[in-house]
Amino acid sequence: MKKTKKLLVMAAAMALAACTLTACGGASSKGGDTLTFGTNAEFPPFEYVTSSGAIGEFDGIDMAIAKQIAEDNGQTAAIENMEFDSLLVALQNGQIDAVIAGMTATDERRETVDFSTPYYTATQVMIVKEDSDIATAADMADKKICVVQGYTGEVCVQDMGYSYEAFKKGTEAVMELTNGKCDVVVIDSATAQKYVGDNEGLKIVEDPSAFESEEYAIAVQKGNTELLDKINKSIDKMLADGTINELAVKYTEETTAE
Ligand code: GLN
User: Fold this and answer.
1) pLDDT tens-place string over residues 45-56
2) From the candidate CATH numbers 3.40.50.720, 2.40.50.140, 1.10.443.10, 3.40.190.10, the one assigned to the domain spanning 124-212
3) How far apart are the C-alpha atoms of 190 and 43, rounded to whole Å?
């Protein structure tokens, strides 16, 4: 109890400090016309850089969702692209209004931010060479494991007690695998599909008993219920009318087509 209270007070103090530094909350909280989302555009089919995307050069399921949320509120969506590890800090600093980055709503993250209604269910999977003998998560015990830094995949492997190497980008981890320098990459399911489609000789191994399902949600500053309500309204609508489903199908096909 005490610890929670202390955390809340600290969060409130931090929010106040952020306000004085940034003239508070930026355009969105004043009903201005830009809603700024932070993302890490290295996570197809959810976010990636392309010549002409849903929001400027950024495209993917999340980008289309962000655009719609802004439009539903008479605003224009803007994207700040940064490292995945920096997103929650940028959110707390008020540099961005919300995070949309295929981000799993975990209890650990809930200590510092608030999450929207979940909009997508995923799970961690293992990408291995086609001839690999890895069939379950336990088979990774004596293998060289690659993960992406700060992703939930890293947390899973850590919790299993295995040693691993962490890379900044999913593409780097997969290259390590195709080059034969590691045996398995643990990463989110939809992104794994994309990488397996892009690279010859790889396959996906699932182990639902070892990897729990994860829910992607949008993060806002703790206590920003005004923005959270708006986001939830849009998400609820897009879930109910099938928009998110359609986007998932469309972008999964598009990014695995080439
Ligand atoms: N879902 C994973 C996480 O939240 C990976 C997200 C991402 O890479 N964008 O850590």
Assistant:
1) 999 999 999 999
2) 3.40.190.10
3) 9
Q: Give Cα 63 distance to the centre of its chain.
A: 12
| Residue to mutate, 79, 82, 83, 103, ligand 1, most ligand atoms under 8 Å from C-beta | 103
pLDDT at residue 11, as a whole number: 52
pLDDT tens-digit profile of 98-153?
999 999 999 999 999 999 999 999 999 999 999 999 999 999 999 999 999 999 99
178 Cα distance to chain centroid: 24
Q: How far is the CA of 22 from the centre of ligand 1 (A)?
A: 28
> Does the Cβ of 84 fall within 6 Å of ligand 1?
yes
Amino acid identity of residue 2, one-letter, is K
* For the CA of 122, the nearest atom of ligand 1: 1
Q: 152: Cβ below 6 Å to ligand 1?
A: yes
Helix (H/G/I), strand (E/B), else coil: 145:
strand
Indicate whether residue 97 lines ligand 1 (CB < 6 A).
no
Residue 121 alpha carbon to ligand 1 centre in Å: 12
C-alpha span between 234 and 154 (Å, rounded): 31
Neighbours of 220 (CB within 10 A): 24
Segment 212-225 mean pLDDT: 97
Residue 253: count other Cβ atoms within 10 Å of its Cβ. Answer: 10
Homologous superfamily assigned to 32-121+215-257: Periplasmic binding protein-like II (3.40.190.10)
Question: What ligand 1 atom has the least distance to the C-alpha of 155?
Answer: 10
Q: Is the CB of 41 under 6 A from ligand 1?
A: no
